[in-house]
Structures are given as structure tokens and as C-alpha cells.
Please model this.
Amino acid sequence: MADTIFKKIIAGEAPCHKVYEDDLVLSFLDIFPISRGHTLVIPKEPAELLHQLSDESAAAIGRVLPRISRAVLAATGAVHYNVLENNGAPAHQAIPHVHFHIIPKYDDGSGLGVGWKPTELPSDEGAALAAKIAAGVG
Model:
């Protein structure tokens, strides 16, 4: 895995504004926030993409994301927020280490802006694709 700023933060070689830490997860404020309280949640396990994480690290993140989200909302007064996780540079991942963004959304428009272009899923195609995905879940 690449030597990233997150690896340095985990190792204590780079500073951060820490909000949570346990044996498997570290959370801290984003230094380039898109809104007040923008917080990152990362596994300590070195994995670039979400599907590369161990079940143990994935479960640890899933366990703390709601707790950290509640804390961000309480500290900032925000009511709405996005949780975002990108996988790969074409999907807008800037640092090649799994990381979740908790991004408060405020009435002034600050926060994450999302462009969503939905299409329609034909029933027969949906059934075949769902079966194929389900077979791979194991």
C-alpha cells in the first residue's frame, strides 16, 4: 500500500485533530473541510478500497460511524449530513486509503453537493443482476 498521509497520521508521524480512536479505527477532522465539522473515519488496517477491508475492520467502522455521526451533529448543531466513501481515483478518491467522510449539511448550502442522474432498471435485467450479485456475496 502507498505511503499516505493517513498512514502517517495513524503512525503518529503527522498531526490531526482527533475525535475518536480505538484499536481498529481512527477519526479526525478533515483539514480541507467542505462544511464545519467535516470528519473522517478511517480503518487502521492498510486497505485502499472498501472491498479489500477485513470483516473485522469493516465491522469496527460500521460500529462507530453512527456514534461519531451523533457526536458531529451534537457538536455542530447540524441536523442533516452525508456519509461518503469513494473507491478509486475515477470515483473521486483522493487518498488511496479507505476513508469515510461525515459531512454536515447546513441551511446556508454548505456541505456536499451531489449530482444524481438516475436511469430506469428493466425488471428482467434487475432480476438477473441481483441473482449474480447475490451469488457472489457468500
The helical segments are 5-10, 55-76, 123-137. The beta strands are 18-21, 25-29, 39-43, 80-84, 100-105. Residues 41 and 109 are 23 Å apart (CA to CA).
